[in-house]
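Consider what follows.

. . .
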Amino acid sequence: MSVTIKDVAKRAGVSISTVSRVINNSKPVSNEIRQRVMSVIKETGYVPNPVARSLVTKKSQLIGVIVPDISNFFIGELLNGIEEVGKIYEYDILLCNSYGEIEEELKYINLLKSKQVAGIIFVTWKMSQEHVDAIKEGNLPSVYISKNAHNFDVYSVSIDNKTAAYEMTKYLIEKGHRQIGFIRSSIEDDIIDSERFKGYKDALEDNNIQIDNEIIKEGDTTSESGYYLMNEILNIKKPDAIFATSDEVAIGAINCILDKGYKVPDDISVVGFDDIKLASLYRPSLTTVKQPIYDMGAVSIRMIVKMIDGEEIEDKHTYLPYELVERQSVKKR
């Protein structure tokens, strides 16, 4: 038979409401009583009812997480970090898959508020002020992982995308490549890809290489899009190298190159961005910018827990370190 809060109260010689105050830290009690109650809880193995606890504290042990595409490799790794660190702090995840639709994202924000979640981690391809306002209305701790979060007065986790793209482009140039194509997201005002495009463009300009718009294409973040856009480029000319702003797109581009009768990296080098698990398993294995995807998820939920506990967070925008991972998809010219 499971131990109830009534059993704990009886053994500790206090009222049920006093046990509730100790568990939920809702009202002050003396240190002597707190220690006595906690000792009984430890002895009996009592586990508080999460539903009852949420009614007292007006919050649950749930963290709401909104993502744009649960099937995306990047999102999957991000969720691993969020969930595993959440478990350490005894928080469960309430996951919402928005399919990148703003109406769905706003609907889920309201749903999570109604569920009295303790905080929200909002992952989206593109943020808007409407998102920020909707979450702020609930007065909930929130952290954003988004392509343009650094443009808003919010807490966010990311990397320095412009510098990372600059270094990758410079790496290709140092390998002797001059005709470097670029495949980026076509999402309107997509800041992360804009930052990556700026890094790419600056590296070319700093090395006196003319930008060739014929080998710059825009599409979505899927391998199918990478295949289609690479085909468009090859129908015009053969570049020395392709820089894709996601690994999935890069893998799609490699498939197209091979289907067209070319070799990677002998004829065309290909690099990506993210370092999803598939990047090291694919053949040829993909040279890419390694984002600490798991850590981004882990840091975001740690920030949420700090906010819930009233701890101070030094910087609103947290930039994590990245790494250029060299594999088999690039060859020196």
